[in-house]
Amino acid sequence: MTPSIPLDTIYTADEAAERLRLTNRGLIKLGKAYGLCSRVGRDYLFSEQDLLALWEVMREPAKQPKATRVKVAPMGDFMKNHFWRFAPSVAVDRREMAVLRFLSSQKGARSRNQIKRAGPRTIESFLRQGFAAERARDAQGDPMIVITDAGREQIAKVDRWIKERAKPKGCRNLLRHRRIDVFALGIDPQDAAMHPWHPQMGQESDRRKA
Q1: Is residue 165 part of a domain?
Q2: What is the reported pTM?
Q3: Residues 199, 100 share a domain
Q4: Which one, 45, 62, 103, 120, has least CB within 10 Å?
């Protein structure tokens, strides 16, 4: 046998309306809408549980503040305008950049034995990535290479990065105030003074103008 559930206090419509501070008609309409009342003939009755449930129905839901939307510039635009804040995006390291700069200064093909700090792996890497092209073989059978447009583009990326990074404080302060490592750019320290953005070159330009 199913155990009986104790019945709460039963209220008439008038008594229930008084407890909930509602009109008789409004309470009955709300009770019928949510099935929270009982009916005997023309009389409507409400239990304690009915009144508690009706009270929850009438409770005002919490209104959370609308989240503020902040427009964020696309990452692509940020990187385009601030790429100079980060290291140059190139596929070679500082030593390989020095090798590319050497090749760009040569008119003919060169083998690894004629290029300072260029080993077989460097030559192989340049050929694989398209930064250099083979033109012939030397007496030892090593490939003799020349720089390609892709290799020159690697140098151009670094040079554009140098030029853009120099803008906040002026070109002549690039290597002096921005503390750019000439080795990281593949520039021989002995040739750094001849670089177009070196402070010494800026002074030479001022002397010519004078």
Answers
A1: yes
A2: 0.45
A3: yes
A4: 62
Domain assignment of residue 177, yes or no: yes
Instruction: Give me the mean pLDDT over the 24-53 stretch.
Output: 92
Q: List pLDDT tens digits, range 82-118.
A: 555 666 677 888 888 899 999 999 988 999 889 988 8
Nearest to 151 by CA among 94, 101, 95: 101
As for how many domains the chain has, the answer is 2
Q: Which is more confident, 160 or 187?
A: 160
Nearest to 165 by CA among 87, 101, 50: 87
List the domain range (segments joined by +) for residue 18. 10-58
- φ/ψ of residue 181, rounded to 5: -75, 115
DSSP track, 115-142 = STT--HHHHHHHHHHTSEEEEEE-TTS-
Same domain, 43 and 94: no
Pull the structure tokens for residue 29.
């309409």
